[in-house]
Amino acid sequence: MMEREIFRKILGRLRKDELRPVLQEWGHLGKRLHEIDFSHSKHSVHSYVVKGFMKNYPNGHPDAVGKLDLLCLQKHSAKRTWAVYHLKKGQDSPPNDAADPKEFEQRLRRELGVDFKKMELCVLQHEKALWVRICISKGSKTKPMLKNATYCVHFPHTPVLIVTNMKAATAESIKQAFVNVLDYDDIQDIRLTGRCVKSLAQLSLNKYSQGSFSQYRLNQVDLQPLSHGKKRKRTESEESITDPRIVFVNQKEKKQRLEILNDTFGPNPQPTLEKIEYKLETKFHGNHYAPGMRNHTGPFHCRVKFEGTSVIEGIKNLGKTELAVVPLPDHLAKVHSLAKNHFVLQDKTKANKSVQDSQT
Amino acid sequence: MAECTPLSQITNTTSSTGRGGRSWTQRQHTPYTRTPRSRRLTGQGKTVPLARTPQAPRTLSRIKELVNKTWRLYKVTPLYKFDLGSLRKYSRLLSAHLDAEYRKGIAVGVESEVADSARFSLFKGLKGASGDSDAIEITVKAKPKSGQGESKVVLSAILCSVQLPDDAFLFPESFTFLPVMMVKGGVGLTKQIVSWLEHQFDCHITHMSFSPYDLSWMVAMWGGCVPETNSKPVEMMYTVPKEVEGLSRITMTIDAKVCKELWDSIRDPTNNRFTEEEEAAFIKSLESHFFYHFKVKLTAMYLNRVVTSIAVVDSSGRIKFYSDDHVHRVLRHITEVAVEQIQQK
């Protein structure tokens, strides 16, 4: 039966040690969960789970698949790329959005039910955020397919929505549904993508307290700034080479460099971004080596991509290891406070001034 | 050229060719190479075909089969006693060898298929000049284990030499020099074929890898070749040194049209060869454009992969051609680099 395969597929995404807690939270197995011996092979454990579920619900259960899928996604959210959307409100009055998952689900179901006759919807609360799974079937007769499921994360009372796997056909309807349910006016893609939901949330929600300001947010600054007592100096580990005959000539420059980097990036770990893309539409600046290009008018179109496990941390390390000249330009150093990772760099001309003004 | 021996001074040409016309017995046995001051870019080199030599018609050329596939490059030392007339004999021997390997239990990569037959054949259309040997193609077909179904090509290898540089080493008649081998197929099967070739023809076949310097030459030479249709942006991918944790690669993609303008501006159109200064100008201008915007020194990173409109090459020796008109140009350069790398040993 189709459901069996779907269950197997979802369960296959979990690791062995994650099976028991997820199934417990799922709750649809009830007492039969204790009958399953988890020391067997993954394949046989999955068979037991499916059998147990079928015994409990011989006619199936509409929300079971959705809930299990969402629970698995919460454990493995880094496997998908997420995009961040920003909800906008025209007037100053705060939106009347729902924080209760049940109410939120009801509202959303009503909104989406207008456009789509057949869909699966599941809302769960996880770590201060509402995780939503929307699975829409194309025709009226076909069942919703697993790979068409759209997943969204919403932090209550914030204008931030993080979405993955949104298909072009249903994107507009889903976006409009969220705008209506959360009582906003408009939704905008702020060009921030990544794999780590927590980092994306941090970048978009704490936009004005990143970098060195993160110290204040995390309560790391001196709690008694007016006290005049001597502060205990933090002993920083210097070079591991303690031979007195070795003289480090550039200690001062190194210290200055680290100070500047610390000021820009802050001492705390940076939020992880996998990719930063720049589209350059400036004039060509390599004229020193290519004098023939001095007469070249018009922009030199090129794109630059920085990729890695944690690119902002990597850029800080570029400065540390002297592969980049410090102080770094703002569009590279201040990425943590800009809440986006797709940038367009243009020359400052009168024509572009209006664009710049509208973006700030 | 400070290290010329008196004998080579006589044979040395006055133009700025790469190594001077020395035979392989006179080459230096040092680990260092002189980087070439200039390289061939276009044209036939010194051997221009005579008016009466029949050219292979374009329809017979199978160059289109090379395009849009990823090939692994190997460099091959001269083959001893390779006879173009005994291709059928070689096919039989190689098939027998593959069969024996399979029976021994050193099974070929894909479990569901059994390598069945190997065939040597001439690959027309890849010969650059009359001084080159004909290109050879080895195809290995496999039948599915179940016994049903047709046999399909499991591996395809092409040994070729396109316009050997004039100053490559000379060797006696019994040797055939096909320095470049392109392979598309499974790793296990490739290994077996390589070991058989080494055994049969007393040669040495190794992976070809490109240093960042080689790749920068390639992007500089081909960055300006923009075919009318299907032009791709020029891309250079750098890997970041391991000390920088978190960042793994930086990619710079330049629009094809603008890249061509840059290329035209640094190039001296009268010269058929592409000089070192032009290569340096191209790369350095792009890196300084990058530095102006990001204050990051690209010169300290390792150029790993290069994409142009006519080919994409990466440092591990994988290559893919995009345009069949320019396959010759690319292979000519690869032949030159292969010869240099072989001579280095």
How would you characterize this protein structure?
With about 350 residues, chain A is an alpha+beta fold. Chain A is about 35% helix and about 15% strand. Chain A is globular and about 75 Å long. The model of chain A has no long low-confidence stretch (mean pLDDT about 85). With about 350 residues, chain B is of the alpha+beta class. Chain B contains seven helices and 15 strands. In chain B, the strands form three sheets. In chain B, strands 2, 4, 5, 6, 8, 9, 10, 11, 13, 14 and 15 form an eleven-stranded antiparallel sheet that branches. Chain B has a two-stranded antiparallel ribbon with strand order 1-12. Chain B has a two-stranded antiparallel sheet with strand order 3-7. The model of chain B is unreliable at about 1-25, about 45-50 and about 55-60 (pLDDT under 50). Strand 8 of chain A pairs antiparallel with strand 11 of chain B, so a sheet runs across the interface.
Rg of chain A, nearest Å: 26 Å
Name the quaternary structure.
heterodimer
Question: In one word, what is the shape of chain A?
Answer: globular
Biggest beta sheet summary of chain A = 6 strands, antiparallel
Order of strands side by side in the largest beta sheet of chain A? 2-3-4-5-1-6
Strand content of chain B: 15-25%
Helix/strand-derived category of chain B reads: alpha+beta
How many helix segments of chain A? 12
Q: What is the number of helical segments of chain B per DSSP (H or I, 4+ residues)?
A: 7
Biggest pleated-sheet summary of chain B: 11 strands, antiparallel
Distance between the termini of chain A: 55 Å
Percent range of helical residues of chain A: 25-40%
Mean pLDDT of chain A: 84
Helicity of chain B, as a percent range? 25-40%
**Total number of beta strands of chain A:** 9
CA-based shape of chain B: globular
Over the alpha carbons, how many angstroms does the gyration radius of chain B reach?
22 Å
User: Stretches of chain B where pLDDT falls below 50 for ≥5 residues?
Assistant: 1-23, 43-51, 55-59
